Amino acid sequence: MARIELDDISKHYPDGTVAVHPTRLTIEDGEFFILVGPSGCGKSTLLNIMVGLTAPTAGEVRVDGRAVTGLDPRARNMAMVFQNYALYPHMTVAENIAFPLRMAGLDKREMEPRVAAAAKMLELDDLLGRRPAELSGGQRQRVAMARAMVREPVAFLLDEPLSNLDARLRVQMRDELARLHRRLGTTMVYVTHDQTEAMTLGQRVAVLREGRVQQVDSPRTLYEAPANLFVAGFMGAPTMNLLPGVVRGGVLVLPMVELPLPAAAGLLEEGRPVTVGLRPEAFVRVAEDEHVARERVFEARVERVEWLGADGFVHFEVAGSGDHAHHRLVARVAPALAVTVGAPVCLAVDADHLHLFDAHSGQRLDVTATRSP
Ligand SMILES: Nc1ncnc2c1ncn2[C@@H]1O[C@H](COP(=O)(O)OP(=O)(O)OP(=O)(O)O)[C@@H](O)[C@H]1O
Ligand SMILES: [Mg+2]
Question: What distance in angstroms lies between residue 59's CA and the mean position of ligand 1's atoms?
Fold first, then answer.
């Protein structure tokens, strides 16, 4: 069990690359914590700094309050699981799981119960005699987890451990990891570039971009109150629709519709340009919801429809102005309703579900917070 603190950690490489700008993060004891962001944003670097494989350029790493910055990975007793978990092909499952214990000099009698316990936890009991080539991808992944567990680490650090698996297996392993975390209660830090994985697994998620933490919050808060345009665009699929808006005459003017300002947004100055974020579910088919004020309704031509079973997504364009001739948007609609490609649909915007960002900085405008005391 471990609480991991990064105190103003940064990482510069000799060639001038700044992989991590000064970063402060605290991962609480027992937490399932996610580092998410696009390729090259510094996720693996941060994880490697935690485990001790990479030395930070500046800053301190603490585990349960104790500085470990200069310590060897072995002295930190954290287990790392990589994407290429590299099982030893000539060893059986049991030997693979036992390997870290053998390296630590334990004898057979000490090893056996611990290997058995790890194998049981991951439902590998019947596979102990097999070699990796005789296992499925998911089973190999479980062996890698068992091998990490057997040392009874204070934390698991997982670097994209599921990205080699096919989609169905990934969902299944995600579920198994979540269950394993509940049973063990051990701190887990999990790196992924996949926002769905981050949303479904994380208790808290740090979103990274170009070596800087953008926001650290629960998946729900990241979705409902993204701190800036980057987080807004990164979390959620299909991605949030972004449109230019301006406050004029007390209403928010969008390219296709005018909206009453949310109560607090009345504090925005007249003429202020904003970027308006609308999740696909912020649109309502008007036929379903006739009481919507008519001025919020607009007609859109359907360009493409995606049916995903429980959800349908309608892609449409609205005319823009200035640099943007068109804006491509996506709305979620109930699949029961017929939607025809090329035909118009009437949509309304649910004004309670809009996000406002500063048009220049991209920072969220928490308009309620700008009220002067
Ligand atoms: N040894 C190195 N020398 C110079 N630059 C490096 C070195 N190792 C990593 N980098 C750079 O540091 C940045 C962060 O790399 P890192 O591996 O942490 O990214 P990541 O978020 O894990 O990406 P991915 O999702 O592709 O694994 C990248 O720009 C990378 O090119
Ligand atoms: Mg990486």
Answer: 19
Q: What is the DSSP letter of 175?
A: H
CATH superfamily ID and name for 241-370: Nucleic acid-binding proteins (2.40.50.140)
Closest ligand 1 atom to 42 CA: 18
Nearest bound ligand to the CA of residue 40: 1
What percentage of the chain carries pLDDT values higher than 90? 63
The tens digit of pLDDT for each residue in 172-213 reads: 889 889 998 999 999 999 999 999 999 999 999 999 999 999
Closest residue to atom 3 of ligand 1, CA basis: 13
SS3 content of the chain, % helix, strand, coil (to 5): 30, 35, 35
> Which residues, 6 or more positions from 3, have their beta carbon under 8 angstroms from its beta carbon?
26, 27, 28, 29, 63, 64, 65, 187
The domains of the chain are located at 4-234, 241-370
Question: Residue 344 and residue 303: Cα distance in Å, rounded?
Answer: 9
Looking at this protein, which amino acid is placed at residue 104?
Answer: A
DSSP code string of 55-78:
--SEEEEEETTEE-TT--HHHHTE
> How confident is residue 265, by pLDDT bands cut at 50, 70 and 90?
low
Q: What residues does ligand 1 touch, defined as CB less than 6 Å away?
A: 13, 15, 17, 19, 37, 39-45, 193
pTM: 0.91
Q: Which CATH superfamily is domain 4-234 in?
A: P-loop containing nucleotide triphosphate hydrolases (3.40.50.300)
Q: Residue 172: CB partners within 8 Å, gap ≥ 6?
A: 138
Residue 247's pLDDT band, with cuts at 50, 70 and 90, is confident
Summarised one tens digit per residue, pLDDT across range 341-350 is 988 888 989 8
Q: Quick check: 278 and 252 in contact, CB under 8 A?
A: no
